[in-house]
């Protein structure tokens, strides 16, 4: 027992030693590959620590895995931050390929890829995602966080396409403020699990550009499986049959600066990036935005804060993003974390859990809602965005999603209507959807509705309503939009080889 304890504490001290800040004089010239190699060694040491912990203290594997993951995340993050201060933060252009670990020479263009190899990568990614806790609560949902990390990397990669440049080439400038957190996402992952662990096995034959796309497709497929497990009749999504390989990883992309949409600009930003640059239609742009169903926004990354769906739905690839937009109430939340450049919409209705932060961005809300002056703006407006249950097809959406409208049954939501008031005016619904801040008993609406709650005028309201009521229609449109987004800028892509079905 004494030997086991010595080995256990030695492994813990070794792990700490590997994460001591590197001397600035050495760090200035230190190659990122050395940092990631040290992180790989760090993972080995933590693994040894887990074994020693189990033997020496009789700790359960589950508890041990959780503690080791937290320990690894904290100390590896210290290493990356120390390096970032001197390397990434010193006017250096750092791209994803420089951050990834490869035991050989990483290939920049995939020459051959079979269905079996695509499936193997998908399996490796799915196992990493599945190793995380499935428990979701008000502050954490590990599988949602991990899926969001992978999809944010893939999305930021292909959203820089414009005039034939950029696209899914595995190139984003990690110094760009819009990409905050992506370096940590790639190298450290979320909750101590990184796609870098899977990439190392395929880096000499599969380009990082192709790998990131496959990884994103894998997490969407895995999170869709949770929906199918509960409802076997739910529509499937199939990425493999349309996947084509041959993307070349780019080692520089200075042109990409400023190309990502600024959420504060609402549908003007959606139009500039998705419509004008990427060549999507409004229906396809709205469909692609549904990926926000997975994960959450974090102040440390984007400056925004909260879940697009409730935590549990944030680990499921479903149409809850659209459902939430239409059957919940939303009011402006200004100056997130005291930053006047970060404003969003927070859930306001009676069904909101005070312990869960649900939000939407201007670029989300503008799809469904607008006013006489155009897009909604959380920064400049003081109104409530909501839809009346009497709006065509809304009742069907409510009935298909628990029968609640703004946290109450539609027929019960008229309880707040004053005596003599027309039930059809929706006074009670306004109160339920918008809350006491916007409604005063005996007075009625003391702050306005954003636009027309009978007939919302967002740029893609009809599509949002269609996707909320028909998940198969959303998945069909999403698949079309996804394929175009990941193929923009590449000619000569090839279908997977040796596919039996």
Q: Descriptors for this entry?
A:
43% helix; two-stranded antiparallel ribbon; 501 residues; 9 strands; single chain
Description:
With 501 residues, the chain is mostly helical. 43% of the residues lie in helices and 4% in strands. The chain has 18 helices and nine strands. The protein has helices spanning 2-18, 24-27, 32-57, 61-86, 96-99, 115-130, 142-158, 182-187, 196-199, 208-230, 266-277, 282-288, 320-327, 362-368, 394-399, 427-434, 461-469, 471-487, and strands at 244-245, 296-297, 306-307, 330-333, 344-347, 359-360, 439-440, 444-445, 494-495. The strands form four sheets. The chain has a three-stranded antiparallel β-sheet. Strands 1-9 form a two-stranded antiparallel ribbon. A two-stranded antiparallel ribbon has the order 2-3. α7 (142-158) packs across α10 (208-230). The longest helix has 26 residues, at 32-57. The chain is globular, with a radius of gyration of 24 Å. The relative contact order is 0.11. The model is unreliable at 7-33, 60-79, 81-91 and 412-425 (pLDDT under 50).
How are the SSEs ordered, and which strands pair?
Blueprint: H1 2-18, H2 24-27, H3 32-57, H4 61-86, H5 96-99, H6 115-130, H7 142-158, H8 182-187, H9 196-199, H10 208-230, E1 244-245, H11 266-277, H12 282-288, E2 296-297, E3 306-307, H13 320-327, E4 330-333, E5 344-347, E6 359-360, H14 362-368, H15 394-399, H16 427-434, E7 439-440, E8 444-445, H17 461-469, H18 471-487, E9 494-495
Antiparallel strand pairs: 1-9, 2-3, 4-5, 5-6, 7-8
Task: Write a brief structural summary.
The chain has helices at 2-18, 24-27, 32-57, 61-86, 96-99, 115-130, 142-158, 182-187, 196-199, 208-230, 266-277, 282-288, 320-327, 362-368, 394-399, 427-434, 461-469, 471-487; strands at residues 244-245, 296-297, 306-307, 330-333, 344-347, 359-360, 439-440, 444-445, 494-495. With 501 residues, the protein is mainly alpha-helical.
